[in-house]
Amino acid sequence: MSDPTLFALVLHLHPLAPARLPATMGHQAHAAFLAAVRGADPALAERLHAPEAVKPFTVSPLFGLPRARDGLVAMSPERTYRLRLTLLDSILYQELMGRFLTGDQRLIRLGSVDFAINKVCATPQGDSEAGATSAAQLWESARPPRSLALRFRTLTAFNRTQGRDRRFLLFPEPPAVFDSLLRVWNTLDGPQFEKAPLREYVAAHVVVAEYALRTRMWQYRHSRQVGFVGTVRYECRGYPEASRRQLAALSALSFYSGVGYKTTQGMGQVRPVPDEG
After folding, report:
1. What is the per-residue burial (b if ≥16 Cβ within 10 Å, else e) of 23-52?
2. Is residue 209 over pLDDT 90?
3. Which long-range contacts (C-beta less than 8 Å, at least 24 apart) are formed by 196-200?
């Protein structure tokens, strides 16, 4: 069995003092992540900051926050909050774990607020949102499904901007979702999927069977972003079974890669839903 190259870490945090932060803090979590990497390896942080088609990490917003008031959330040192990081690179994992587990550096700063890291969870036993695997392991365990369901936990959208005309797809159409996952998959060490046959299969044979979605809006520092959250189930019809098996592997990858736009700033956090059929 291959060594893990995909990782999901969950940091359990509390602020050092009572604090208020913007309700949408994905950009602050992104900056905190890069600062943590910079503290461990400045050159690696610069590479992560450079523009790339596929980034080897995702960052969640803080989970466990109270309801916002006037766009701000109040946080207490008495409560624990959770920040989820996924890493698609074993070197990045090693650098960050070394940083977070060093006794005198168990702090992370979001905006103007310092948080103590109470615990770093790297396995499902520590936190159900943590884990580790590899593309090869996902492929080995994949089976051709009759249907696939995904739960979009945080605001999700697909960027369709052309020039100055900003456009976003606000529905998880099968080609958009699985093409997003396919682009990430083919950057990983493991079996490579041919794009054209899989895209043709998705366009012809994968349909939305049911959904429960809600539209949401996040206020970033300089702009607003509209997207959706909720659950979608896709039916995978017809043959070949190889394409259906590839979709099962891509669905499992979504736990680590996220889907769509700004996954490095809190958006597109996804969890596969077990097939009850």
Report:
1. bbbbbbbbbbbbebbbbbbeebbeebeeee
2. yes
3. 197/243, 198/243, 198/246, 198/247, 199/175
Cβ proximity of 213 and 171 under 8 Å? yes
Residue with tokens 């650098």: 95
Copy the structure tokens of residue 173: 């159409």
277 confidence band (pLDDT: 50, 70, 90): very low
Return the SS3 of 9: strand
Whole-number Cα distances in Å, 199 to 7, 142, 202: 27, 18, 5
Chain centroid, CA 231 distance in Å: 15
d(CA 72, CA 64): 14
Q: How far is Cα 46 from Cα 34, in angstroms, rounded to an integer?
A: 9
How does DSSP assign 191-226, residue by residue? Answer: PPPPHHHHHHHHHHHEEEEEEEEEEEEEE-SS-EEE
pLDDT of 23-55, one tens digit each?
A: 887 888 999 999 888 888 888 888 888 877 789
- 26-40 vs 42-49: helix crossing angle, rounded to 10: 140
